[in-house]
Amino acid sequence: MFRGIFQSKLPSCSAIFGIRSYVTRHQNTAITKALRAADVLVNPRIGVPEPMVSAEDRQRLRTDPLLAQLVNMIMRDGKKMQAEKHVQRALLDIRQITNDDPYKLLADAVDMVAPLMDTKSARQGSKIIQVPRALNLRQRRRRAIVWLLDAVSRRNERSFFMRLSGELQAIVNGTSGILEKKLRLHRMVLLNRSNIRTTKSF
After folding, report:
1. Confidence class of residue 49 from pLDDT cuts 50, 70 and 90?
2. CA spacing 20 to 30 A to 32: which of 48, 110, 135, 192?
């Protein structure tokens, strides 16, 4: 059906490759690329709408480090396209509700809850203590996204993208419980700051 939609936009195989009656693998690849590059038309019989997410936005999901990390952590069972769809719909929901740039809101929300430091277990004599350590940017974002997804799973909205959108907005508005988690972690780091010289860890 969809090949019929694109048919008027594509030259025939004979026009491209001569008079051969068969299609080689190289020719099939060229046809597939031409199909993907053709304009998307709306089928008047079934009323297929134009996609709400632009190609630029879809590409940004895979090239932007924060978005790519979020998608990879949402992904389950290797279903990356489904995870991308969840993030796309959440960003669209944020744009519709706030009338603001959803990418900026996402970055601001993650930065607000990303901890600067963490603690790791270390042995001191016969006891185990907590030693503070600084986190790099990717580690900070990972901890923030773990907290974010945990909070999303506890929300009551029906759809995942609505829960994700709602939690990101709650963080920016200062009403999310994740902010308290970050404060508790930083308090623990301060309480154990005297253990920073410990080097033997496991």
Report:
1. very low
2. 48
